[in-house]
Amino acid sequence: MRVLLCIGCSAWLLAAPAWAAERALSVTIYADDLALVQDRRDIDVKEGRQRIEFTEVSGQIRPETASLAAADISIIEQNFDFDLLTPAKLMEKAVGQEITIVRVNPATGAETREQAQVLATNGGVVLKIGQRIEVLRDDGLPVRVIFNKVPDNLRARPTLSVSIIGAHAGTRRATLSYLTPGLGWKADYVALYNESDAKIDVQGWVTLTNSSGTTYDNAQTLLVAGSPSQADGGANNYRPPLRRSTLQTPGTESGSRERLGDYYLYPLGDRTTIANLQTKQVSFLDVHGVPAEHGYEFRNRWLGTAEMPVSAKSIYSFSTSAHAGLGDQLPAGILRFYMRDKRGDPQFIGESRIDHTPMGSTLSLATGDAFDVKVHAVVEKRTRIATFDWQTDMRYELTNALPRSVVVKLRQEGLWGDASIKAESQKSIRSSAEVAEWAVTVPANGKATLTASFETRY
Amino acid sequence: MYSTPRVCAMLGLAIGAALDARPVPAAEILAEPPSDLIVTVYRAPYRSGGSINLNGLQGFALISETRTVHLPAGRSRLRFEGVADGIEPASAIVTGFPGGVIEKNRDARLLSPAALVAATLGKPVELLRTIRKTGKTERLTGTLVSDAGGVVFESEQGIEALRCSGLPETFSFEPVSGLSARPTLSVEVRGLRAESRQVTLSYLSRGFDWAADYTATLSADGRSMDLGAWVTLANSNGVGFPSAHTQVVAGKVNREEGEGEVEPIDIGAPILAQCWPRGSTSDQPMILYKDRGLNADSLKAPPPMAMAMRAASLQDIAVTANKVQQEQLGDLKLYRVPDRTTLASRQWPAANRSRCA
Fold it and tell me: Which of A117, A140, A160, B226 is 20 to 30 A from A220, alpha carbon to alpha carbon?
C-alpha cells in the first residue's frame, strides 16, 4: 500500500461544472509507454471525513501522479490498495475472528457445522474450536471454511482510495487524473511500391496497445507524437541507436495537425473502447502516387576487407514534403514495403523503422539485401610512406546480375578527417570528414571496379 | 506445454455457439472462412545455411485471405476468426470496403478457464460441489468476488474460496461475450448499403520457414553432375492453410525486431485455485519470507507469444514433384509453386517439399 499525503489540496478545488450522469473517460497516450487517464465520474459525498474508492483504475497506475478534483471537498490522503482479495489474505485478515467450518463426512456426506476462531495462519491455519486447538484440515479430510464478510480493504482489482473531508453531503462530479504505463502507441505504415512508374502509395495507421490490466470504455482518445521526458519511474527510455540513419534531410515545413507544445496531436475521431490486451489500429494517412526512388547502397568500414562479395542494401527514398511527397509529418514507427508480383498480388519486400519525421524531410529506407547486386571490398596494399604516414590502396568490385544497369552509392566510412584521397578511378564526394562517397554505375549483367588510395597518419 | 491450450480450445468449441448470442452496440458480423488463400513464406533472416530449425521456426509469412462478408448498411464490427496465431496485428491490411475501415482490433484475450473467471467477476455464477461417496451434486448460486490469485465466491451462506475444502468443486458459468476460441482480428467498417462483398485480409505471421536443399549426382566418369533442388516449407502455427497459392521469397529482407515494444498477448491460463497456507502438524518448520504477498508484477501481461509458439515438432515431410517457377520481385527472387498446396497446422505436422530444378 502506498500512502500519499496531500499538502495544499484546496488548490485543486474546482467549481462544479454541469454534468452528465455517466462516467466519462479520456485517455492521452504518449509514444513511450505512458498515458494520462482522466476519469470523470459522479461520487456520493457525505459530510465530514470519509474514504472514497475508485475501482477500475489502471492496474499499473502510478499512484504518486494521481490527483482528484471535485467541488467542496478537501483531500487528506490517497492510498493505492494493492491488497488483493485472495483466499490467503482472507484467512490472514480473519485472524482473531470467528469463522464457520463445515466438516463433511467423506463416507456419508453428512455436514457438521462449528464456529471456530482463527488463531494464526503461519504456514498452516490454526483454529480454536471451543476450548480445543486444531490445525485446519490436518487430517486431509474435507472441511469447508465460510467467512462472514470480505474485509473492507481487500479488492479483486487494484483500487485507488482517497480520504476526504466533505464540506456538505451530496453527489458531485469528480475528476481523477493519473499517469500509467501499459498503454502505448506507435505508427505503422504500409507502402506499396509500383515499379513501372516508381511511385508509392502510403497508408499510415496508429497502433494502440493496452496491457495495463484494465479496459477503458468509451474513452476519448488523444495520441501525442513526441517523447516527453520522465524524471524516473515510468517507461524505460533507453533506445539502442539506429543501425542506419533513415533521415537524409530533415524537413522544414509545417502541417495542419494540431500541436501541443513541440508535439503533434492525433485525436481519434469517435469515442473508442480500449480493451485490456487489445491492439487497435486507426488510420491517419492515406496518400497515393508519391514519387519514390529506388537505389542501392553499400557501406564499407575502414580497412574493411571481405572474403566474399557482400550484397548491397536495397534502398527506397521519398519525400514527406507537401509538394511531391507524403505531405505530412510522420510519427515514429515501422514502414513496411510491398510490391506486386507478376500475378498482381502484393508481396512483402522488407521493412524499416523511422523516427519522428518532420514534414518536408527526405527519407531513405533500407528494405533488405539486394539478391543480384554485390560488392567485394578488398584492401589491396598498405604501404608505409613515412613514420606516421600510411598509404592504403582499396579496390571495390561491383557485380550486377540484373538485366538493367544500376547505380550503387558506395560509402567508405571511418576516414576520421585526416585521411586524404591521393588517387581514385572516379571522382568522390566527401559528404563529411568521415565519409567518402561514390555513385558507381554497374552495367546490366556486368561488373564495375572502383579503386582508391587513401593517405592516413596511421 | 501443449496440453493446456488444447484443452482450452476444446472448451471453446463447446461454448463458442453461446458466445455470439449477446447483443452488441455495433452490429457484429462474422466473416466467412477464407475462400482463397495466398501464402508467401520468407526465410528466417539470420539462419545462414543448413536446414530449418523445426523447434523454433524463425521465418515468417505473408498471408492473404479472401473472404466473403455480408455487410449491413451503417457501422458494423466484422470479425475474422481463425487467423494464424503468430499474426503481427500491426501489419494487417484489409481491402475491399468502399465505406472505409474505421479501426482494426486484435483482441489477445482468448477463451480460457482464467478468462472465463475474469469475465464473470462480480457476476452471478453457480458453484457445483459433489460428495464423492454419494455422487450427489449440490448447486449453490452466488457471485464471483475475486480471481486475484485464488478464486473467492460469495453466496447467502457466506464467503468461500474455491477448492480449499478438499471437496470436488467447480463453477458453472453463464454465457459470456467477447472471448473467442481462436485468434481473431476484427475491423469496424462503415457499409454504404447492405451487400455481400469479397474482401481481402493480408497480414504477416511468425512461425514459418523454408529452405532450399540441393542434391548433386555425379556422373559415372566424374566429369559432370546433375543438380536437383527442393524447397521445404514448414508451418508451426495452430492454423493450417488448405489449398493455398504458395510462394517462397529468397533474399534477405529487413525486419525490425520489436525493441521494447509491447504486444499484448494472452495465451490462456488455467483457473488458479490457490488457498491459504495449508501446512500440517507433520510438516518441517519452514523459512519465513518477508514478502509473501501477491507481487504487483504478477498482474502484468504474460510473456510474449514467441515462447508459446516454439516447440512445434514437425516430423512428416510431404514430397511433391511440382516444378517451381521463379520470378523477380524487386531485389528479391520469388519462387511460385504452380499448383495449390496445403500448409497444414502443427497438429498434422508437415513440411512440404517442392522440386525446383
Answer: A160
Question: Using the beta-carbon criterion (under 8 Å), do A350 and B254 form an inter-chain contact?
Answer: yes
Q: Read off the pLDDT of each residue in A79-103 and give the average, rounded to a whole number.
A: 86
Is residue B119 situated within a structural domain?
Answer: no
Confidence bin at A426 (pLDDT 50/70/90): very high
Q: Select the residue from A29, A90, A118 to test the B interface by mutation, using most B Cβ atoms within 10 A.
A: A90
B133 and A109 Cβ atoms separated by less than 8 Å: yes
Q: B225 to chain A nearest CA, in Å?
A: 24
Q: How far is A417 from chain B (nearest CA, A)?
A: 31
- This prediction's pTM: 0.75
- ipTM surpasses cut 0.90: no
Which cell goes with A116?
A: 471456530
Q: Are residues B168 and B53 in the same domain?
A: no
CA A324 to CA A293: how far, in whole Å? 12
**What is the interface size between A and B, counted as CB pairs within 8 Å?**
280
CB within 8 Å: B103 and A90: no
- Tell me whether residues B254 and A366 touch, CB distance under 8 A: yes
Kindly tell me if the per-residue pLDDT of B73 is higher than 90: no
**Whether the Cβ atoms of residue A362 and residue A406 lie closer than 8 Å to each other:** no
Give the range of the structural domain holding residue B248, as residue numbers without chain letter: 3-108+180-259+306-355
The answer to whether residues B155 and B28 belong to one domain is: no
Same domain for B22 and B99, yes or no, is: yes
Residues B329 and B208 grouped into a single domain: yes
Q: How many residues does chain A have?
A: 458
Structural domains of chain B, count: 2
d(CA A28, CA A7): 26
Residues B100 and B154 in one domain: no
Task: Measure in Å the smallest separation between the Cα of B220 and chain A Cα atoms.
Answer: 32
Q: Output the pLDDT for position A272.
A: 84
Over residues A12-21, the pLDDT tens digits come to 333 333 333 4
Residue B301 lies in a domain: no
Output the average pLDDT for chain A. Answer: 84
Nearest to A221 by CA among A38, A23, A20: A38
